[in-house]
Design goal:
alpha/beta; 7-stranded mixed beta sheet; 6 helices; 29% helix; globular
Length: 224
Amino acid sequence: MWLAAPDGPGARAGSPPPPPPPAPPATLTIARLHYDGGGDWYAGPSALPNLLAAIRERTALPVAARERVVTLTSTDLWDVPYLYMTGHGNVHFSDQEVRVLRRWLEQGGFLHADDDYGMDASFRREIARVFPDHPLVEVPLSHPIYHLVYEFPQGVPKIEEHDGLPARGYGIFLGDRLAVYYDYQSDLNDGWEDPEVNHLPPQLREAALRMGVNLFTYAVSSTR
């Protein structure tokens, strides 16, 4: 019987090969939603890289340095746990996109909609098409997104003044799982951007980053 040559000193003929090295951990990231309707889906280009850097520095989660840009019909959507959308204008989903988004969320995805001031009416209209049977409700202050890593006893922090209204966090629950989170009159995106973009006080930028860390941590821990 033919036997393979020994791999090194002391190796015996017929010895099993050494086990392969462990696979590197999967890299997680955020997907930015490229939607139709005319709104600036690309608003705040430095925001998500800064949030991902904060997640990498403050948690043990293996995250990428950059986000992915996806559409609702892109196969890349199914590789990410956290879908982020923002903007100042109109949002529109096609009938096919409505069906895909609902299926993706039902299968464990997490959508974070961040009103950058001007997206409210169209987002509410479109998400009601996705879930006509699950209205947006205010997320209770006891929910883990406000306590998972950092404490937010008053809920989502208010980062920009806009209309002067209090910041609110709304959501859609599928069973016990929060599948959609919508921050209104907060504008976390502005707090994630580079400091020279919006000239916000350091404490507001820190609050926004902390809230983002909570949201991402929840998204990746609740998808399975």
